[in-house]
Amino acid sequence: MKAAIFHGAGKPLAIETVPDPTPGPGDLVLKVEACGICGSDLHAAEIHEPGAMPPLPAGTVMGHEFSGEIVAVGSDMESRWKIGERVTAMPLIGCGKCLACLSGKGLRCKSCKGIGLGAAAGAYAEYIRVGAYESFRLPEQVDWHAGAMVEPLAVGLHAVNVAKLQPGESVLVIGAGPIGLAVAAWCRFFGARNVIVSDLVKARLDLAADFGATGCIEASREDVVSRANQLAGALPGVVFDCVGVPGSQQMAMQYAPVDGRVVVVGVCMKLDQTLPIIAIGKELQVNYVLAYHHQDFAFTVQMIASGRINPLPMLSGTVSFDDFPTAFEALKASKQECKVMLHPV
What are phi and psi of 278, to 5 degrees? Predict the structure, then answer.
């Protein structure tokens, strides 16, 4: 099969032929129909400074936001899954039997293998092996593109759950990328009174209204604190850092009011530092979130199918393998696009 291979930081992805995956007893193999390019992949493929995240292994096939059709079923799963079913999956393979897996926290499984970041091959490929326990059927109402967006939407859902958002609260979302838009959508879904989204790039802010934003702040030319005060009548009590770059966590603390809550969603892969006295002086509650639980994926699929959450306005464009390496490199510099997807045709 064809796959986009990572050979090292600073080198473009290479489209090569690699062996087709085969399912283990508890696995499925999918023909990939769509796979989104995630900011985490772009950062993982960069040169990392000493002491930061370990480098991505050469030979890695990335891609963890995907949907596809089952083409092979593991021997233990033949009574539960059928060839031809449409699915998405959490990008991890757990044992499916331990307490962590059974409680929906597969990332905590001792045998967990992450998909797309080195341990197991990802979906920048024609086919992918996934865990059957971590897979979800896609209703007819959920097309391939929406199915591939379940993953980032589930990240946003988990973040809002961790924030313990209450109806009527006001929130400030820093960053209008896919994760920030997902957070905004779920905040509005769960009854936030004011959902204010801040970003440096106007093109991204233009999408925010489609995802529940009641107000937007173009941070490159507006003072975020004073404008948020104006839009919400007071500083929003919950601030989500959906940027994940050095300094964004500190920024969220500065924007938050006394007794506010800061939720760090963006994955910063570089060394960062904060000035703790800012958070201490305000007695802030700071929460970090990692990915999602099984229940978040299931709920997201249901809400997309019912039409209550629509991720499709995020889609900026699609590319084939022929154009994929160039598109991937371009996204490292461009912030205009929201979500670009690979169609491995």
Answer: -65, -50
For residue 152, give the amino acid letter: P
Tokens of 285: 């509650």
SS3 172: strand
Nearest to 240 by CA among 291, 309, 289: 289
- Helices and strands (H and E) in the chain: how many: 11, 17
Query: What's the pLDDT score for residue 105?
Result: 96
Name the CATH architecture for the domain at 153-288: 3-Layer(aba) Sandwich (3.40)
User: Is domain 2-149+311-342 annotated with CATH 3.90.180.10?
Assistant: yes
The closest of 154, 118, 137 to 36, measured between CA atoms, is 154
Predicted local distance difference test score (pLDDT) of residue 51: 62
d(CA 108, CA 27): 19
In the chain, where do the E strands start and end?
Answer: 2-5, 14-17, 27-36, 65-73, 86-89, 92-93, 113-114, 127-131, 135-137, 170-174, 194-199, 215-218, 238-241, 261-264, 285-288, 315-319, 339-342
Instruction: Give the residues of the chain that fall short of pLDDT 70.
Output: 47-52
